[in-house]
Write a structure and sequence with these properties.
The chain is α+β, with helices and mostly antiparallel strands and 279 residues long. 18% of the residues lie in helices and 41% in strands. The strands form three sheets. It has a six-stranded antiparallel β-sheet, with no helix packed on it. A six-stranded antiparallel β-sheet has the order 13-12-11-8-15-16, with no helix packed on it. A five-stranded parallel β-sheet has the order 2-1-3-4-5, with helices on both faces. It is globular.
Length: 279
């Protein structure tokens, strides 16, 4: 991790006392290392690629939601590695415990952490042959309905081949990282981060034959919205929402870039599952 860069980017859970105290401790430690802190706030929309060139690494202090906010605010996702300090009860992405934060940060500066590449998905929405929305997700993209909408209908194709016609309350397109999030709560499988696959998970399907499916990471997924019977939205990583209309085409494919995730070498995926899910 030896570098001329001397700035650490941090994203702190808002209105959280414990997160505020952790930020204060991290800032004080950074001063002893002659490192500056750049904090992402609600006033800062996107950290530009130019600004990212000055950053050594990024740190999320809070939970997985705070980590996803950090990822969302990066113009380029792979410019530097990221790590998460967990202040919540679950936290699959934010792996570092609060009491280990300074120790792990010191290890990071010495290059003693394990860096792992995690896939991202590029998502586009086309309406009447014109792209009207796009985004990049780390966990998942989800098609959801409003409370007053009875059912969603859409056709799903994978790698150019028609897969199925879906009638459901929604649909989740998840990375392996996201398999422990919304996809899991909707009946999806737990996927090891080393598996190169995209998970497709119907939400409360109106057909008993509609089940979660794993497809190759290399496959492009196309979803055509049919009669929504109400309001439907596309939600990026549980944070950004875009209203969908009948006839919209969604195209999802693996991004060319990866997210660079830092974690202590002794922490294992299987151990995290046992601790977080009680397996």
């Amino acid at each position: 991790m030896i570098s001329m860069k001397q700035t650490i980017l941090i994203c702190v859970k808002e209105f959280d006392k414990a997160a505020g105290l952790a930020k204060k401790e991290l800032t004080q430690w950074a001063k002893t290392q002659s490192i500056s802190i750049l904090e992402i706030t609600s006033a800062i929309e996107i950290i530009s690629e130019k600004k990212q060139k000055e950053i050594l690494l990024g740190v999320a202090i809070g939970g997985d939601g705070t980590f996803l906010t950090l990822v969302r605010k990066l113009a380029r996702k792979d410019a530097f590695p990221l790590m998460g300090v967990n202040l919540g009860s679950l936290g699959f992405i934010t792996e570092v415990n609060r009491d280990e934060m300074i120790k792990v940060m010191t290890q990071a500066l010495k290059g003693k952490l394990t860096e792992e590449k995690r896939p991202l998905l590029d998502v586009e929405v086309f309406r009447k042959n014109r792209r009207v929305a796009s985004g990049c997700v780390f966990n998942d993209a989800a098609i959801t309905k409003s409370r007053n909408t009875t059912m969603l209908r859409f056709d799903v194709s994978v790698a150019g081949d028609f897969l199925n016609h879906v009638r459901a309350d929604g649909y989740i397109i998840s990375t392996p990282t996201g398999s422990t999030a919304y996809a899991l709560s909707s009946g999806g499988a737990l996927i090891h981060p080393g598996v190169s696959a995209i998970e497709l998970v119907p939400i409360c399907s109106h057909s008993l034959s509609s089940r979660p499916i794993l497809v190759p990471m290399s496959a492009e997924i196309v979803i055509e919205m049919k009669e929504p019977r109400g309001e439907a939205s596309l939600v990026y990583d549980g944070q950004i929402s875009f209203a969908l209309e009948q006839g919209d085409l969604l195209k999802i494919r693996a991004s060319k870039n990866f997210l660079r995730l830092l974690h202590p070498p002794q922490q294992k995926w299987s151990e995290a599952l046992r601790k977080k899910l009680g397996l």
